[in-house]
Amino acid sequence: MKRYLVQRIGYMLVTLFVIITITFFLMQLLPGTPFTNPEKLTDQQLAILNAKYGLDQPVGIQYIRYLGNLVQGDLGYSFQHAGRTVSSMISDRIGPSAFIGLQALIIGTIIGLILGIVSALKHNSIFDYGSVTLAVLGMSIPSFVFAALLQYYVGVKLEWLPVALWEGYSSTILPSIALSVTVTATVARFIRSEMLEVLGQDYVITARAKGMNEQQVIVKHVIRNALIPVVTMLGPLAVAIMTGTLVIEKIFAVPGLGEQFTLSILVLDYSVIMGISIFYSALFIFVVFVVDIIYGFLDPRITYKGESA
Amino acid sequence: MKKSTNTSLMNKEVQTQNLYIPEEITADLFEKAPLDVYKSEEIGTPPVSFWKEAFLRLAKNKGAMISLFLLLALIVVAIIGPSMNEFTYREQTIEHSNLPPKVQGLEWLGFDGVDSNGVNQYAEQNIDTNYWFGTDEFGRDLWTRVWKGTQISLFIALVAALLDLIIGVVYGGISSFYGGRVDNIMQRIIEVLMGIPNLIVIILFILILEPGVRSIILAMIITGWVGMARVVRGQVLQLKGQEFVLASRTLGASNSRLIWKHLLPNVMGPIIVTVMFTIPTAIFFEAFLSFIGLGLQAPLASLGVLIEDGYKSMRYFSYKLIYPAVVISTIMICFNLLADGLRDALDPKMRK
Predict the structure, then answer these.
(1) What is the chain B residue with the closest CA to A134?
(2) Please, which residues have CB within 8 angstroms of residue B83's CB and are 6 or more apart in sequence?
(3) CA-CA distance, A255 to A282, in Å (whole number)?
(4) Is B185 on the interface with A (CB under 8 A)?
(5) Measured between CB atoms, does B66 come within 8 Å of chain A?
(6) So what's the pLDDT on residue B38?
(7) Residue A149 and residue B325: Cβ atoms within 8 Å?
(8) Which of B12, B241, B262, B336 stands 20 to 30 A from B308 (CA)?
(9) What does DSSP assign to residue B112?
(10) Which residues, in sequence order, are CB contacts of B209 under 8 Å at separation 6+?
């Protein structure tokens, strides 16, 4: 276990380092300058600005300096918003993203679990077909298409919920629902197939044979065992939610990290694009790592490499 | 008497029973053994090849078959659609801008040329030509643009999936076939690549490349092949240890013969399934990139670009959003269902 942990943490650091390096050098290749209206600046002003942001140094020095700052949690300054650090922009924006992200994860997981469990218990019934169809729809329809339609019908036509903006709890509902669709579909499909597999296991037959009542069999044996692998879905789900926030925050004008990212891409705010890319990647790597560890604890059958069973 | 090779016990029996032994063996001494009904059936059917069997299984899957036909129909319409009327995808007719959809004979389905304010724009402006899906703000025909966009989206997805396939098969094949240190190093690289979120890399690459079809494809394959490489590697590792490979090798088969004649045909199933899942992902990424403003440049259209345009004016001209949205959703659903069906058909063990 210890050896495995050390190995995994090593991989995490290497991956992160690769991402940071790729991001840094890709940003160097970007066309244009990071300053707004560079043609209006005199050579002297440009020189001062370049010196201020360290852009007059050779690329190698800039890279080492960036790495050094990064270790201390300093992601540099935004080129578009004078005097604002990238880290402060991320910490200001993370709240709304985390809120709708978690809310979507909770809604999606609960509905997904219910749909998946019931359709496995009522295998081949109308309910089963219905929820399988829903799951296919949810996985196939792009989240931004669904979000746009949701905004049009619920927000614009029916006027039940705010169309956009970030004012009070009611404005978090539509973006969360739009985000949760992928989660619901993925979880429902996954838990359904897990349940069907567990239902055919010998220990379920044994439990029934020894006279356990059906409800107990389902709750104690089937659902508990089917739930374990669902933890592995957290990695892909985190990615789906991250991807989703980029477009859904744009659609519903949520002042979150995703909206900042798409905005920075449009105005080519290099340091912010870099900072958020690295932040997202680190988050993703961390989630996958934690999921792997939790899974090992939940399922005693899992052994880690280099450890004997 | 014939020398018997039987055991002594048998010999004793033969002797004690004092059997009648004919001088000559004639046909009437033989009796026809009754042919087992089940046996006859077993022998009767010609051997079914793996692919035929897989196809039969697929044909039984209604969802997959409907998806297959819908997809074929969509592809045909995407190819001939743009030339079904006199407009081109880039031709602007400013006086005909923002016209709602109108089709002769389909008025009852909503194709009546009436806009969101209840005004029949065609009667109002005295326009004789019908725009089946309406027009955009520059008066471009949306029917032509939607199908042209479908063409481009499908093209991007197919090419990206094909390139993923080639890179993934070569990489995964080399890694697993040669094994040892080669495999070790190649796997370490993959493990690092797996940790990087695709989307971030795609966005960063699109930013530095000139926007266009080629750069979207390129950005998508940079990380896209990893999944395919892993599938191929896993399969080849499994097959490599099996007897038929050993037998072939013992008979002196060369590496290339082993790869082309024994390993690849056996990995085809999972490869096809992976490709079928890659295509909808690629379509999604293309639309996603267009939606956040990193897509194709006007006047070129892809489904993503059309959805983005339609989204901007959805409040008053919802038809601009709905047609491309329906087309992309249908394509995605069909590809997913077909891929599911193929997975079940090609490898019942993979069934989820």
Answers:
(1) B333
(2) none
(3) 21
(4) no
(5) no
(6) 65
(7) yes
(8) B336
(9) B
(10) B215, B218, B219
The residues near B93 (Cβ < 8 Å, ≥ 6 apart) are B135, B139, B140
Tally of residues, chain B:
352
Which of B191, B280, B318 has the CB atom closest to A140's CB atom?
Answer: B280
Which residues, other chains included, contact A150 with Cβ-Cβ below 8 Å and sequence gap of 6+? A174, A177, A178
pLDDT tens, residue order, chain A (309 aa): 678 788 888 888 888 888 888 888 887 777 666 666 666 777 787 788 777 777 777 888 888 888 888 888 777 777 777 778 888 888 888 888 888 888 898 899 999 999 998 988 888 888 888 888 888 888 888 888 888 888 888 777 777 777 777 777 777 888 888 888 888 998 998 898 888 888 888 888 888 888 888 888 888 888 888 888 888 887 778 888 888 888 888 888 888 888 888 888 888 777 888 888 888 888 888 888 888 888 777 777 766 554 443
A122-131, B118-127, B150-159: the lowest-pLDDT one: B118-127
- d(C-alpha A94, C-alpha A96), whole Å: 6
- Radius of gyration of chain A from Cα atoms? 24
Q: Which of A145, A262, A274, A305 is most worth mutating to test chain B (most B CB atoms within 10 A of its CB)? A: A145
CB atoms within 10 A of CB A293: 15
Tokens read off for A129: 């077909």
Interchain contact B349–A (C-beta under 8 A): no
The CA distance from B290 to A225, in Å, is: 42
Which of A9, A28, A144 to mutate against chain B (most B CBs within 10 Å)? A144
- For residues A114-144, b (16+ Cβ closer than 10 Å) or e, as one string? ebbbbbbbeeeeeebeebbebbbbbbbbbbb
Global pTM reads: 0.80
Sign of CA dihedral B236, B237, B239, B240: positive
Mark yes or no for CB contact A29/B204 under 8 Å: no
Quote the tokens at residue A195.
């349940």
Q: Which residue has the tokens 């190093």?
A: B185
Q: Write the residue in B191, B207, B352 that is nearest to A11 by C-beta.
A: B191
The answer to whether the beta carbons of residues A179 and A144 sit under 8 Å apart is: no
User: pLDDT tens for residues B170-218?
Assistant: 898 888 888 788 888 888 888 878 777 888 888 888 888 877 888 888 8
Going by C-beta distance under 8 Å and a sequence separation of 6 or more, which residues neighbour residue B178? Answer: none
**C-alpha to C-alpha distance for A255 and A97, rounded to whole angstroms:** 8
Best mean pLDDT range from B93-102, B111-120, B144-153: B144-153
Counting one residue from chain A and one from chain B, the pairs whose CB atoms sit within 8 A come to 114
Which token pair is A298? 């939940």
DSSP structure class, residue A35: S
CA–CA–CA angle A124, A130, A131 (5° rounding): 90
CA distances from residue B327 to A84, A154, B35, B292 in whole angstroms, order as listed: 43, 22, 58, 19
Secondary structure of residue B139 in the 3-state scheme: coil
